[in-house]
Write a structure and sequence with these properties.
By secondary structure, the chain is mostly helical. The protein is globular. It is built from nine helices and two strands, in the order H-H-H-H-H-H-H-E-E-H-H. The protein folds into two domains: about 140 residues, Type II deoxyuridine triphosphatase (all-alpha NTP pyrophosphatase fold, Orthogonal Bundle); about 50 residues, no CATH class.
Length: about 210
């Protein structure tokens, strides 16, 4: 199994685990993941900049975070409760390796949104095109995805629901601590997610 397929399999497993926290049989509930995709696409355009009547500079870091969020929804659309994660990962790897690109990032993003609106589907080819045009690779996606997913679990384990969770410590928000942790780790390590969690745990106030 290639490194990319392994990483995609891990992300599918993590997405299923997170969705199961919301509802045990979540893939039978008909949640509108496709709608979350096109709404996020619209929000991302504001971060990228689309207004021709004023000067705008793309907020690349925020765009990458939004793409990571969209991938959560895309994975959720692909999981059907029947097909194995390894098989799904192989299909996704093939699609991501064949990006569809329009004339610029904005137009490619519209291809991604169009598939979500018209077909209620996740267009991984267009998603890969967006990644390429914003300078993002699968390693960046994996680092961002596993980090965000692990942080969500960490929050839940440390009182997010009852309000006892501390979001800011040592002068930084938990998202900033997360970035520091993931930058210091090797994404190819088999226990990358566990290392991210342990890194957050080591920094979190006792």
């Amino acid at each position: 199994m290639s490194a990319n397929i392994t990483k995609l399999t891990v992300m599918l497993e993590m997405q299923h685990a997170m969705n199961t926290k919301v509802h045990e049989n979540w893939f039978e509930q008909g949640f509108e993941w496709y709608r979350a995709i096109w709404v996020e696409c619209a929000e991302m355009l504001d971060h990228y900049g689309w207004k021709w009547w004023k000067k705008q500079t793309p907020d690349v870091e925020q765009v990458i975070l939004e793409l990571v969020d969209i991938f959560h929804f895309g994975l959720s659309l692909r999981i059907d409760g029947k097909t194995s994660f390894a098989t799904l990962a192989e299909g996704l790897a093939a699609e991501l390796a064949a990006p569809t690109q329009a004339q610029d990032f904005k137009a490619t993003l519209e291809l991604l949104a169009a598939a979500a609106v018209a077909d209620k589907a996740f267009d991984a080819h267009a998603f890969a095109g967006c990644m390429a045009q914003i300078g993002m690779d699968l390693d960046d996606l994996y680092r961002g995805y596993v980090g965000k997913n692990t942080l969500n679990f960490f929050r839940q384990d440390h009182g997010y629901k009852d309000g006892s969770y501390i979001k800011v410590w040592d002068g930084k928000e938990d998202n900033e601590h997360l970035m520091d942790v993931v930058k210091a780790l090797d994404t190819n390590h088999a226990d990358f997610a566990k290392q991210v969690y342990a890194g957050l745990q080591a920094r979190y106030p006792a």
